[in-house]
Design goal:
3 copies of one chain form a homotrimer. By secondary structure, chain A is an alpha+beta fold. Chain A has 7 helices and 11 strands. Chain A has a 6-stranded antiparallel beta sheet with strand order 9-10-8-7-6-11, sandwiched between helices. A 5-stranded antiparallel beta sheet of chain A has the order 1-2-3-5-4. In chain A, β4 and β5 form a beta hairpin. In chain A, α3 crosses α4, α3 runs antiparallel to α5 and α6 packs antiparallel against α7. Chain A is globular and about 50 Å long. Chains in contact: A-B, A-C, B-C. Chains A and B meet through α6, β9 and α7 of A and β2, α2, β3, β4 and β5 of B.
Chain lengths: 249, 249, 249
């Protein structure tokens, strides 16, 4: 009984409002030790160091210990909905001992309310964009899909804006090589990028990350085919992989 | 009594057949969250992305969360025994929170049965090649030796094919600097490569990796001298380091 | 009661003499799985591999699984006090699953007693230089300050020797972007370097690291302002961050 209540409490904790903090720059927190922040007037010395155009007086910041794909997708929706631009997407080798990435994403705006709104929207999106992240004790799988990519996806992967976009990723990387082949064969899609531990595109994470574009039905079909196989393959190294939140694709 | 049975069960678990999986591409699993896979007909788009010559219609894939040296040595034996070629060796910064690497190794063949056989042989070899990997709560030591290096060792370290080869590695890296000096002084050997966290050869792991060549007796003597010292030095940071399986050198 | 004694024992363990080891090269151990070592006469082959001038017959080695800033600061004091030179400072992506770095630092001397003394001094300094490293379950904060930087700080960050130096760092990196802005605005200081996960200066850690110079009062004021804010922001992701030892700034 105690156990059940504890589980419910934990679930509520995830869905509850972020822990508040009496600091102007604080926006909120999210899954994966994600934190959202804003700076209303970036100091000129910091502008120079970050190589950011000074017309972006305000910046919004989204970072996480666990997750890069979910944050990129969440910011992609946020920039569609707000008057902001994606200034940088950086991957860290993290996930707190897991096989993948953490992230640091910066958006810019002339007015701080726009940057703040973008980060709020992104934090709200994290529940959905973590939906097709599956994990067990041996590793993780990540799948993403959108019918219309925007500027965060373009910045991170070089994918065409306005077109359908899909992502297939797994760690250990070996599994993702097979998932990549499966995704490409499952439907008529074009490869946008292929990242691997030692040959670029990752921060030496133990992942292969394939991104694809094409007709939206085809992209979705490819991602779903890879997801089905990935759950089987990662399961051979441990228990059945489970979604972080709720699958959305 | 229960404890003893549990231990035996765990040992059996390691030695038992890998968890099976109803997927054509699956070959098996091994120590360190290793997984072996094959693709019979690599999609041409994936060939391009992986920069693999299209004459290798089939590829074998060996990857692990924990371990790169053991996988390289295991594939080295596998390519001696099969009609395959080592196409790439990539290091990931991994070991699930440990100081070292995970790995992604690709072998190519014209016929899928060759690639599959290579991965089977490699998975069988992992028990031996993990034998001189020692660890405690503070880090790990790794030693490898072969009387005759083949193409995986050449690809990974630039060592001469057909000659004796030794590897000395430890994390934290500081310990391995002393082990490297000890190995070089212990016998008449030539250094092949020296990798460190910030100056190349590692994926920013907390390791120094020395590889040596020379007369087989000398190489073996060097590796053994370093191993003896390494167990003492890593032991100052925690409990006595223990072998992952059973020492073979 | 047992609990209390255990806690005291653990505290004593940290402050007690390092576990001894019957090896000439061993100097001692410290916080963060730090280990200090010396080599009296570096083998010429190792000199070449490490790209060290052969006039440094002896080297001192300080490495850690958890921590780079504390080790750099500790060596900085050590080279002020001894006849040694800082030959290299390398960052590893480590901290045993945390967001930051491990380290490998080499000092050189003509006489082994100098190298040994430098490493002894550095190990003694680690308790202090870990004082403004704060952590909780979600990440860490690190602050450093000295009124007079020496050669380790110059080597690691390019900071001017003989001048006041401050460092502001946090993981997840998002928090540190705001801390950097706060530090720069808090007093009249000049930025020396800004490192981030994907744009250089880190080993893909999930950190932003800002270093500053200027009037010593101003630098100290900047660091303290960032520290106050950092404790609040990291606290939104978990419990209140606590110092590893005892704050010194």
């Amino acid at each position: 009984m105690d156990q059940v209540e504890k589980s419910l409490d934990e679930k509520k904790a995830v869905k509850s409002e972020p822990k508040s903090c009496n600091v102007t720059e604080f926006v909120g927190t999210g899954i994966g030790d994600a934190i959202g922040l804003v700076i209303a007037n970036v100091d000129p010395q910091l502008h120079d160091q970050m190589k950011i155009d000074k017309k972006y007086r305000s910046i919004g910041i989204l970072g996480a210990r666990t997750g890069a794909g979910p944050e990129i997708m969440a910011i992609d929706e946020a920039v569609k909905a707000t008057n902001t631009e994606v200034l940088s997407v950086e991957l860290a080798r993290d996930t707190k001992g897991g096989a993948g990435h953490g992230s640091l994403i910066i958006v810019g705006s002339e007015d701080v309310s726009d940057a703040r709104r973008a980060i709020e929207v992104a934090l709200e999106n994290l529940n959905q964009t973590n939906g097709d992240v599956y994990s067990n004790e041996a590793g993780h799988l990540e799948f993403q899909y959108t019918a219309r990519a925007s500027y965060a996806i373009e910045k991170a992967f070089g994918a065409p804006v306005g077109k359908s976009f899909g992502m297939v990723c797994a760690g250990p990387a070996a599994i993702a090589v097979v998932l990549a082949d499966t995704a490409i064969k499952a439907a008529n899609v074009d490869v946008v990028s292929y990242a691997s531990p030692g040959n670029g595109g990752t921060a030496h994470s133990n992942e292969v990350i394939l991104t694809i574009t094409g007709d939206s039905g085809a992209v979705r079909q490819s991602v779903i085919a890879a997801r089905e196989l990935g759950i089987k393959l990662l399961g051979t190294l441990g228990s059945k992989p489970v979604s972080t939140t709720k699958p959305y694709i």
